[in-house]
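Q: My labmate handed me this sequence with no annotations at all. I'd like to see what the chain might look like in three dimensions before we decide whether it's worth expressing. Could you predict it?
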Amino acid sequence: MHESLLLIDQGNTRLKWMRAARGQLDPASFGSGSLEDLRQTVEGGGPAPTAVRVSSVAEPSSALAVVDFCRQHWRLDARMLRTLAEQGGVRNAYPKPDRLGVDRWLAVVGAVDRYGTPVVIWDLGTASTIDAVDGKGEHLGGYIYPGPTTMLECLRAATQLPVPDNLEGEDEMPRDNGGNAIEPGRSTAACISHGVLAAQLGTLEHVMRQVEAGEAGPARLIVTGGGADALLHRIGVDHTHDPWLVFRGMLVD
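A: Here is what I predict for the chain of 253 residues:
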């Protein structure tokens, strides 16, 4: 009998889950929500997993609730994943590996396992993170800065500016033959949305130049995270969108 894995990615505000078998993810089984939502999904039917792996950046009490849930429903001890000094051929840049968030680490491991090296991982969420791995599997470290929505929310909270609800603003931002030009805005709302886009993409472009200079050649760019969709069409370099990097990393021993 083949092992049937349930993978649970626990963030600060919600859970995400997916099944896997024979080393392959089953995207059709993806779900997200609260522990109660997971409970309802499980009780709705489907085969019981034979093993559970959990990546958690939540408070210990919340992580313990997931562990207890797995014991109650399947009599399984969930395997709590942690950040390692080395995994899947990737060597962690942090002197104290456990200081690197396990979800961020697993995204790096998953990207290298799936796409090889050198690689840059751009994860767009509440915070934007960029991590790079060189051609020898050395994690070079990374960058963390406010995500697009967070930038807008900060301006909305701290100023009286007419902050737009999204990144489109009021003006069209035409593309040119050299990539995705972000022109100066012609209204305050457009200036804000264009500024946020320029900050996000400018940071990425800086990192890509830095990594590729060290590699004397191109690095592959993998884009992930809940905020990725709004920026994918603005990226002026070849890239791959993969929303399942953390789950991929959870499969790598």
